[in-house]
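ARCHIVE CARD
Drawer: 12
Card no.: 0347
Subject: one protein chain, sequence and derived structure
Cross-reference: see card 0346
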Amino acid sequence: MRTLRARLLLGTAIGTGLVLSVSALILYTIVCSALWAEFDESLASTARSLGALVEQDGDELEFELGEDSLPEYKPSEHAQYYQFWTSAGNVLTRSPSLGESNLSRSSEGLGVPAYQYAVLPDGRPGRMVQVAVTPRQEERDFLPDRETAQAGLILVVARETLDVDLTLGWLRLLLASGCAGAILASVVVLSWFVQRGLKPLERLATEIAGIGEGDLSSRLNRGDAPTELSPVVTRLNDLLARLETTFARERAFAADVAHELRTPLAGLRATLEVCLTKNRQAEEYRTAVTKSLAVAGQMQRMIENLLELARADAGQLEVANEPVDLVVLLKDCWSQFAKRATERQLEVTWQLPESCFIATDQTKVSLILNNLFANAVTDTNANGQVWIALRPENGQSIVRVSNTGSAVASEDAEKVFNRFWRGDAARSSIGNDRRYGLGLPLCQKLIALLGGSITVSTETNGTFTICLVFSA
């Protein structure tokens, strides 16, 4: 039952069986009701005929039936029965087939014929009708000088029901066998239709199986696919497009990592090789080691950013939720870059409230702010300006970090969130200022993880602004 074909066949078989069974039951009920109604009408007609044979002559009752009349009431294998009672409960007459036996009668509901199932005196199943009978009176009883009380009788007529039971039995057998045969036939026919109907699904599975890792540019052909499969084909093609984009990005990412690591490694190796070409003074060795440590630090920062990005992509970063004063945190993070800003003679302008508390992860917010401040101090032109502003607004806390001297064009502003993308100025930087284009992509991942957002904008005068929005 794990296959779609089997489920469809079972479902249709059960559905067909239920419909046929209900239809057969309704048909059987109608036929059964009609047969018993006809049988009861025949019993009632017989009772009326027998009741018409009773005549009242004065105070005496006579049953006008000859010995050779009505042979069906004589003892035989299929004998029928009747019995008359007077209103006093005395037996007036009974059919010869009864012998000394009696039929059962009731003293209730004598106004209408009363039907009931019964076991006949010879053990056969049967059905009886009980009616009230008023005897006919002789014509002389109606003379004006005679007053005669008309007698009331009770008549019970019984007949076997074997013929009706046999007919209904054959009808049940016919309906049951017909339903079973119809279900089997429907399963055979439906199996062919289901197999034929699932052909497009099998062709689609074959197409999917033919798509390899190196051929993600292929797309599934909608062709003669049924309407129900069209959304599936569309979604699969969308998935293939996303996979193709992801694989291309991953291949480019691997190439970018290799390229970015090759440059500092080459510089590190060149420094060490030059240092080892001859014996040098201690100060020269110290200088070489210092340069090597700087390069190693750059690579370490890049690798740490890559590791954080990988964890963010995999959803492995846990987020703490604690009260954080953004005003204090902004000043603490800037303290690491204040010396560098002073060396470059940057003018720093603060626009902060007295305090601004939010519930967030302080470690991750610190990492975001450190990246933003590092970019601002590095990218700002000498003697330039840096603005750091914080403003609560509509239940949110908005942080803006702006700097002059930006070389990023307005059309390239959103590219800063692409991994390993850098502007021309950043690409040409060397030494401790060298960057790898991973800071802002990491910031974008982290701020989204914290439930906030980050946007960038540039102005024609070279002012570059990054805006962070935190939920309160």
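Annotation on reverse: The longest strand covers residues 125-133. The chain has ten helices and 15 strands.
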